[in-house]
Hints:
Layout: E1 4-7, H1 13-26, E2 30-34, E3 46-50, H2 57-65, E4 71-73, H3 77-85, E5 89-91, E6 97-98, H4 103-118, H5 131-148
Parallel strand pairs: 1-2, 1-4, 2-3, 4-5
Antiparallel strand pairs: 5-6
Helix pairs in contact: 1-5, 3-4
Protein name: UPF0178 protein LOKO_01805
Family: Belongs to the UPF0178 family.
Pfam families: DUF188 (PF02639)
Amino acid sequence: MPTLWVDADACPKVARDIIVRAAERTDTPTWFVANHTIPLPPSRCVKSLAVSHGFDAADNEIVARLAPGDLLLTSDLPLALEAIEKGAAVMTTRGEMLDKGNIKARVQMRDFMETLRASGEHTGGPKGYSDTDRREFANALDRWLAKQR
């Protein structure tokens, strides 16, 4: 069974709860990695890993531990690109699968938007995490886990 890796620094709490329930239900090894302690319920398969504070410390730890076939749950596009290059599957907390066919265009758009923001342009932030996002994420995660069985 592959391992679930969660980029927990920016993972919405509602998504964290969905991940924990899915991991418990399917007995899937799951790691929440962040640069601070993530509160999690006691579990036989869900663990938390707090890394040192530092730019991209959690991302670097995730990349170092990822194995081909694992699933990374993140919205961090540069981290997603590294994971895909290592052979891992990547899903956002909105249930969108990122892969070799779409990640480079997404990273380029992110970089472009970052350049706009740096020049003073107001581009807005990500939309709030809706009930639809929650439902789509839960369904996508369940489908991915079912394929692994």
